[in-house]
Design goal:
This protein is α+β, with helices and mostly antiparallel strands and 460 residues long. Helices cover 30% and strands 24% of the residues. The N and C termini lie far apart (50 Å).
Amino acid sequence: MAPPCYSFVQKYKPDTASQTTFIAPTFNTLPQQTEDRGVVDMEFTALHRLLGHGPGPLTDEMIDEAVSQRIAETDDLDWKSSLPPTSGLPQTDFPKDVAAMANSGGGVIVYGVKEQEKRATERVDVGDLTENHERTLRSGAVTAINPPVFGLGIHRLGEAGNQCVVIVVPASADGPHLIYKNDYFAAPIRNNADTVWMKERQIEAMYRARFDERRHAAEPLDHLYGELIAGLDTAERAWLVAVGRPRVTPTTVTRWERDEARRLFQDASKASLTYAKRHGIRPFAVVDLLNPRPGLRRWVVASTPAAEGEPRWKEARASIHFDGSVTVVFAVGGHRTQDGFQPGSLIDSAAVEGAVADFMGLVRTVGGHIGSVDYEIRVGIEWTGQDQMIMQTVDNLGFPFAGTSIPMYRFSPVEATIEIGIEDERFLHEVRILIQNCVNQGGITNLRITAACPCDDCQS
């Protein structure tokens, strides 16, 4: 008896002459949605590549240019003359088209362009994309595809009477993405300008690639983390070390200019204050955000060196790598008080909250800028001194209190996969969970400066 997958493929009459091959996921940037009818955020898509443009905004003029040049469809570009309807969306070609792009490394679907023999011939007005229609499209990519395809970039271009909709499908490390019809399922994939069904070996290869990616996901984080802790005076004071990288990394590296890096650091600092209020010493209060320094395929901001003879207690660094990786390292032990300096093993919980909030602000800002869907992150505290680490909070009167703290010889690094494109409320919830996992290891339950989350899980 043929397996259900095979039965479904036969039902859809695949092109058996097409010898498609497994395509490993590559990077396609996913912009944040904008209401501007003529331009969307910086990115590099199939349209940019085929028109010979460098990274930049998607514009209405690019659609006109593609039509005038009769640009042909490819693995990562598909022309459509009309939007799929809102009713019965799972039964349309929309889930198949999105899943095929995700299985092929991501790509662009343009609604509002007629094609002949796979080449763009003229523009067609698709009308206004309503909020309900957009919500239905996003829902279809989640509910009609398994695993779901998150992070669609849906963009409106053009003026009334000449509007088109561009959907940027992100690359995915979760392939194969399957679509279901009744009791049958199949995995679509792009084969040049056509969408075909994967053969059994292709599905097997894609599952193997998914499992290999998960198995080796820790290796790049290990490298970033090890690079940061090398040379830290962890025998004298505890350091918080945080690293993150896109789960699907770029296939090409673009060197950002200093002004762009400066803006990203400043935007990250602003974002972090929505996760934890301004209080005491934290990384973005210590580093020079206006003066990024070049590093090896990255930009780095660092704290100002202490004057000669002055104690070094306010130290931090943060970096943005050209592949989208981000790092923060911050001395959380040995801070100064009114009575002098704390031991290097004594950590204030608010310093941990602020440092994690700054790191997550950097993750959200850079991830949104490059269009990443998911980030793999790790947050640890490194200490090699003789004493046990103690994490202190404050009592009801605001005085330092460590009576309920759990002494730690070692901090267990906290790892997580973070969705970048989720709503602000859900992202704040993820930030709170990460901070709680950090301070709970020291016996601390109350969060002192982290913003309250209005979601039902946090309110219950």
